[in-house]
Amino acid sequence: MTQDIKNFVLIGGKRIRPILFYYGYLTAGGRNKKSILDASLSIELIHDYLLIHDDIIDRDELRRGRPTIHKRYQKFYQKISIDYEHLGISAGIIIGNLASAFGYEILTESNFPDSFKTKALKKLSQIIIGVQAGEILDVFLRLDHPLKEKEIFKIIKYKTTGYSIEGPLQLGAILAGANQKALKDLSNFALPLGNAFQIQDDILGMFGDPGETGKPVGGDLREGKQTLLISKAKELANKKEKKIIERTLGNPRLTKNQLKKVRKIIVKTGALDFCQKTVTKLINQAKQKMENSKSPPKIKNFLILLVDSIIEKEK
Amino acid sequence: MTQDIKNFVLIGGKRIRPILFYYGYLTAGGRNKKSILDASLSIELIHDYLLIHDDIIDRDELRRGRPTIHKRYQKFYQKISIDYEHLGISAGIIIGNLASAFGYEILTESNFPDSFKTKALKKLSQIIIGVQAGEILDVFLRLDHPLKEKEIFKIIKYKTTGYSIEGPLQLGAILAGANQKALKDLSNFALPLGNAFQIQDDILGMFGDPGETGKPVGGDLREGKQTLLISKAKELANKKEKKIIERTLGNPRLTKNQLKKVRKIIVKTGALDFCQKTVTKLINQAKQKMENSKSPPKIKNFLILLVDSIIEKEK
Question: CA A288 to CA A232: how far, in whole Å?
């Protein structure tokens, strides 16, 4: 099963978190590049842990272009047990937990002062608490009521920004001994970037090429996720269009034709345009915040360039 | 959902792990009783994390005399969604992960030197890796073949001893700055105690009062767990008796009458007697090891007394 984790880590993914972890360290003046690279594996393993569990929760069948872990085990056990569905989920829970423990272990063993490490380990726990809180909001609130824009941004803050952008940057910075002010500067940069990253991801989820994204198209719609894109389309749609969206939202048996219709509505209402413009605005905000920060000029310029590449990698 | 964790922690359980965590600290000469008590909550939360996930994996419906977390949420969602079974499991996965992150966080925040804390956090991760490895052996090996006695003791070592006895003792000792020799002494004491604890637990699982144990009687049999008790009975049984055991092992629809028959076989073959004698032998071994250790006499005597109370609490 550790082999599963190894394969899962090695087949790819965007590596945004370890990259930000690395540059967060450099921003705060860290110089031990070998040690921070080694330590950055911890955040990637924690990411794998949460992805493996998320894939169970969201019933996803593909991840990084391959079967998700629980699906792989379901297929394996199908040959030997009638209880294969449950066994696959059980394997996914355990393998996720192993990835989590390995992620923590790597950080405890990393080559940094103990005082920085305990601070980073505390931060790591808080990041996980945040992303699980975001997951609760995401999965369970949507059963309750249509989300307001404010709620959508709150979910993004917990589920994406804290975890994928702000968290990794701050973890790296903490390992370089960054002070509160420096951590705050990174937050100010991370918040608009995280929002841009998520909205861009939502756009790709509806209009992207599954061959490139590694995820089935329309997945958010099928799972009933209320992204900014979908919520904006509903807001701008006429009665008939709104009904079409509502009928498809959360329908696991969504047809290609239905998906096509919803896409058309998203374009026609201007929701796509609105979201694309929002991404551009947020990216510029993030760059401006980094420009004004106290980071070393070389790293600052690099992070400003990185903004485009993070969003571009998503394109 | 944090309320769920609070309720789950507060409704009881034997608290063996925080107690051993506390006395592990005292054994190694620690004196800050207030801080070690606070820190001991971490191991209890990690225990809750793994219990909540285990209950999903084992499909347990009762824990500490109340519905398990995923069952509770399944009941809750039954009113509002046809997908309630999956939603309950999802809630259990997330709530378990939250308990884990809280457990780690508490340890990072505890009032001990950073160098001791990072060592303890590393050990904690290794304990979790061990228990998940034990869970893999336990759940997946038994699908493959009947376990040999050696394999059963290996599973006990990972799944019970490392996690419930040795781990908590060593974690506490590490927070007092214990050296390798002191940690090894604790291992020597923990190994027979862990074996005794697990075998006693297996006996209770077949013959105990569910009102006292909080678990449904015969659960191990229903789940197909190959405990020493069941494996010994199979070894000592005649052909007809062996067939009865094999037919009931792993049968989720086990009847009261079938359970009664298997119990009779366990008594008649002498498997129960064998296991009870093994528990007594192991308890004496553990006491002897503690007697010969270098721990302070007062703590040593206390831990020797604790052995009986750990096993007695199980009675």
Answer: 27
State the Cα–Cα distance between residues B162 and B160, nearest whole angstrom. 6
Number of Cβ within a 10 Å radius of residue B312: 9
Residues B240 and B248: their CA atoms lie apart, in Å, by 13
B222 alpha carbon, distance to own chain's centre = 18
Pick from A4, A47, A105, A68: nearest CA to B130: A105
Quick one: which H or E segment has residue B65? none
Name B38's Cβ contacts closer than 8 Å, sequence gap at least 6: B106, B110, B111
Question: Rounded CA gap, A142 and A71, in Å?
Answer: 25
**B45 pLDDT above the threshold of 60:** yes
Give the model confidence (pLDDT) of B246-292 as tens digits: 888 888 788 889 899 999 999 999 999 999 999 999 999 999 999 98
Q: Is some CB atom of chain B closer than 8 A to the CB atom of A20?
A: no
Q: Which residue of B has its CA nearest to A98?
A: B129
User: Could you tell me if A140 lies within 8 Å of chain B, comparing CB atoms?
Assistant: yes
A100/B139 Cβ within 8 A: no
Question: Best interface-test mutation with B: which of A100, A138, A145, A174 has the largest number of B CBs within 10 A?
Answer: A100
**This prediction's pTM:** 0.88
Q: Which of residues 91-120 of B touch A (CB under 8 A)?
A: 91, 93-94, 97-98, 100-102, 104-105, 108-109, 113-115, 117-119
**pLDDT tens digits, residue range A305-314?**
888 887 864 4
Q: Out of A203-217, B5-19, B202-216, which region has the weakest mean confidence (pLDDT)?
A: B5-19
* Mean pLDDT (chain B, rounded): 89
Could you tell me which residues are beta bridge partners of residue A67?
Answer: A62
Closest CA to B14 of B167, B165, B196, B175: B165
Instruction: Give the A:B interface size as CB pairs under 8 Å.
Output: 121
B82 touches chain A (CB under 8 A): no
Q: Which of A55, A119, A39 is nearest to A89 (CA)?
A: A55
* DSSP character at residue B62: E
ipTM metric: 0.88
Q: Which two tokens stand for residue A284?
A: 């510029």
Q: Do A105 and B91 touch (CB under 8 A)?
A: no
